[in-house]
Each structure stands twice: as structure tokens, then as C-alpha cells.
Amino acid sequence: MYGCSLYLFFLLIGMEYLDARRKPYNVGKVIFGLVLIALCVFVLKQSPGFGDNSVFSRREPGVTHVLVTGGAGYIGSHAALRLLKDNYRVTIVDNLSRGNMGAVKVLQELFPQPGRLQFIFADLGDQKSVNKIFAENAFDAVMHFAAVAYVGESTMEPLRYYHNITSNTLLVLEAMAFHGVKTLIYSSTCATYGEPEKMPITEATPQFPINPYGKAKKMAEDIILDFSKRTDMAVMILRYFNVIGSDPEGRLGEAPRPELREHGRISGACFDAALGVISGLKVKGTDYPTADGTCIRDYIDVTDLVDAHVKAFNKAEPGKVGIYNVGTGRGRSVKEFVDACKKATGIDIKIEYLNRRPGDYAEVYSDPTKINKELNWTAQYTDLKESLSIAWRWQKSHPHGYGANQI
Ligand SMILES: NC(=O)c1ccc[n+]([C@@H]2O[C@H](COP(=O)([O-])OP(=O)(O)OC[C@H]3O[C@@H](n4cnc5c(N)ncnc54)[C@H](O)[C@@H]3O)[C@@H](O)[C@H]2O)c1
Ligand SMILES: *[C@@H]1O[C@H](CO)[C@@H](O)[C@H](O)[C@H]1NC(C)=O
Ligand SMILES: *[C@@H]1O[C@H](CO)[C@@H](O)[C@H](O)[C@H]1NC(C)=O
Ligand SMILES: *[C@@H]1O[C@H](CO)[C@@H](O)[C@H](O)[C@H]1NC(C)=O
Fold first, then answer.
1. 10 is in which domain, residue-wise?
2. Whose CA is nearest to atom 4 of ligand 2?
3. 381 C-alpha to center of ligand 4: Å?
4. Other Cβ atoms closer than 10 A to 348
5. Are residues 122 and 19 in the same domain?
6. 38 and 95 inside one domain
7. How far apart are CA 324 and CA 20, in angstroms?
8. Does residue 243's CB lie within 6 angstroms of at least one atom of ligand 1?
9. Cα 405 to Cα 407: distance, rounded to the nearest angstrom
10. Does residue 24 have a cis peptide bond before it, meaning omega lies within 30 degrees of 0?
11. Among 150, 213, 299, 402, the one annotated catalytic
12. Which of 57, 225, 259, 362 is buried most deeply by CB count within 10 Å?
């Protein structure tokens, strides 16, 4: 709009010059005016945003436009990279409360062509901005990654979790319904299962989450499920297990805010220990009823995870909901993980064995039969050491994440 009114302004000035055409000594001024108009149009066309907007607001045959919320974050940025590689048109919405502008810049440099990638800085908790985004863009689908996602933090700040997970998902869903966006791929988690009696976890395992993070995600799932019964929206809910790894080509990595390190996940802690940022790794609990006494988890590589998103999207059907666990189906103990981390980094990380952390359960791993069968998806990156080596390469070459002013 701003571009257009500027354009008009210069056009009017040009007209005045044209009016004075009968006076021959004004010919020079007329030409000057026309040159000004041309210059103005040229400059505006070069500036990002001009014309771009119309591309993202138009449906184009053969082009699928995906809104990636939380696309500046760890998983969202990897998903956006994969979508762009597969020729999707991508709009990232993120308020950078946790993500990295540096990740968005990497993507922008890889896909600078007009109409490929657009970044919108906005808060998904702000209904007005969410509505504006949906009104101004023609999305075919939403992959909703944006959230806060630390179990420990969720027990300390529950409202932050219900607000930024449950309530924000409701806002996104309302905007999708209002603007007729037909497909939703939702990021859920194995934390919605709580502490099931039986392993492995199937999609039919009852969900009894035991922390605000898991509960907020379960509530968001319930809202989506109830709504889906009344619409023809195509929905896929993916329940991820523990996500690790990074882009095998080393373009993206995981770079959480330094202040979130204390809540951090095991792979982050492993790299921090290897980098010397922290003195060593604390293994919490060695007396669990598992083979080596440490907890067992299912580690899923982010490359496999985003592949599951693309496959889920391709199989999404109007009026149907697909719910899938995304894990390898293999549990690994914390000891195994630590050994793999030592091998991947080549550093003899100091390990400290401590008492159990409250709220941790002994064993969690998925049964991926359903997603194998229905989406023809199988985890490919199942070598822990290999996944960690890839992630370590990025960490080592980016000791300060995406850089001081790109967090
Ligand atoms: N990392 C895991 O192991 C894991 C496991 C299971 C599920 N998940 C889910 O995957 C999704 C992505 O997780 P991640 O690990 O990439 O986290 P992340 O913190 O790296 O990314 C989340 C992104 O969302 C953005 N965001 C948060 N609140 C926002 C708001 N109100 N408005 C706009 N943007 C906002 C943040 O800035 C950040 O970029 C989350 O929904 C998470 O619950 C992650
Ligand atoms: C991001 O969104 C949250 C609400 O979810 C808000 O409280 C926070 O201030 C926002 N941060 C920025 C940088 O806009
Ligand atoms: C989440 O919501 C709370 C309000 O409960 C807000 O203060 C916070 O900034 C929000 N955003 C994030 C990323 O935590
Ligand atoms: C399943 O995926 C594999 C590759 O991952 C492919 O070779 C095979 O053709 C696929 N099967 C179906 C039924 O699409």
C-alpha cells in the first residue's frame, strides 16, 4: 500500500509537468518528471515487500503455500528448509521469542527468488495480527510448530504453557477456519502420554500427561479433534519423541537461548559439555529399572521428523484426522547416549552421576508401526553417533549459535 501511494504521488507530480507541456521550456522538466517516476518504480520494485505481497496472497496453480509457525526455531527451520527444497512456497511466522533470526537468514539466502520464502515477525497470541496474516496470505496448509517446549519450565511456569500452546493453537485454528485453510499438521509430543504402563507406546496408548507441557499439548489436540468432527479440515497430529540431530549439509542447527540451557535437552547438554561451556554432563538417576539403570528414550533425528511431516501432509485427507507417533521404535539408555556423544565429539566428557530428577519416567519409546504402514515412513537416521556427529559439526563451527545479533 505504502509503495502504491508513493507511486501515485510521483505520478501526480509528473502530470503537473505534462500539463505545462505547451510551454516549450518545460520539456526538460517533463522528461525529468518521467525519469523520476521510472526511478521511483524501479526502486520500489527492488525493495523487498513490493510485489512480493501479491505473490503470497494469490493462489497459483501447482504451487502449495505452507504457513510454518515457529519456523525460526529448531524443528520449524528444518521443516521450512525441506519444504523449500521440495518447491513449496513458505511463510514463516515467528516472534523470535525463542527462535533464531540467523536460521531465517540462512533460508532466505538459500531461496532468494521472489515468492519462495517470506518471514513475518508476529506473535501468535495476538489475534489481530494472526487474522491479518491469514487475510493477507493464501495458505494451503499450516504446520504449527510454534510453542514453548521445556518440561521443567512448564512445571515452574504453567500459565506460560497453557497460554503459548493451548490458547495460541486455538487462535491459529480459528483463523484457519475463518479463512478456509484446509490442512493442519500439528506438532504434538510423547509427553501427552505421561507415564504409560506398557511399552512401546502406540497411538492407542491412553494419554495421561503428568506435566503442564504434556497437558497443554493434549488440550490442544482435544480442541483440534473436536473441531475436526465438524469440518472438512484435513488434520495430521504428529507426536514426536526426543528430537536430535541437524541438517546433514550443515546449514542449520539447534541454538537455544543461553538462558534456556538449564532446561536444555540432553543433546544440547552433551555439546555444551564438549565445548567446555559447562563442566560436564549430569546423569540424573542410575537406579531405574532398566538394563544399565539409566532412563531409556527414543531419539528421532530431525531430518526423519521433517520427512514425516511432508509424508503426513501428502496423505492428509479432508474430514479426517491422522494421529502418528514419530519415533524410531528403539529405546536408548542415557548411558548409550553419552557414549555416542563422546564418540561423536571425540571428547572425553566428564560425567557426574546424580539422583533421579522428579517427574522423569524410566522408559519411553514408540511403536512406529502405524506411521510405517500408513505413511510409508521409516526412520533412516537411526545411528545415534551419526546423528550426533552431524549436529556436533554444526555446533563446533557455530560456537555462538547463529551469532550474537542473530539469536
Ligand atoms: N524438540 C523436541 O524434542 C520436541 C519434542 C516433541 C515435540 N516438540 C514440539 O515441536 C515444536 C517445535 O519445537 P522446537 O524444539 O523446534 O522449539 P523451538 O523453541 O526451537 O521453536 C519454537 C519456535 O516458536 C516460536 N514461538 C513461540 N511462541 C511464539 C509465539 N507466541 N508467536 C510466534 N512464535 C512463537 C519461537 O520463537 C521459536 O522459534 C513445538 O511445538 C514442540 O512442542 C519438540
Ligand atoms: C512473543 O510472544 C509472547 C506471547 O506469546 C509475548 O509475551 C512476547 O513479548 C513476544 N515477544 C516478542 C519479541 O514479540
Ligand atoms: C507466553 O505467555 C506468557 C503469558 O502467560 C508470556 O508472558 C510469555 O512471554 C509468552 N511467550 C513465551 C515465548 O513464553
Ligand atoms: C515407500 O518408500 C520407499 C522409499 O522410502 C519407496 O521405495 C517405496 O516405493 C514406497 N512405497 C510406496 C507404496 O509408496
1. 2-46
2. 125
3. 17
4. 8
5. no
6. no
7. 71
8. yes
9. 6
10. no
11. 213
12. 362
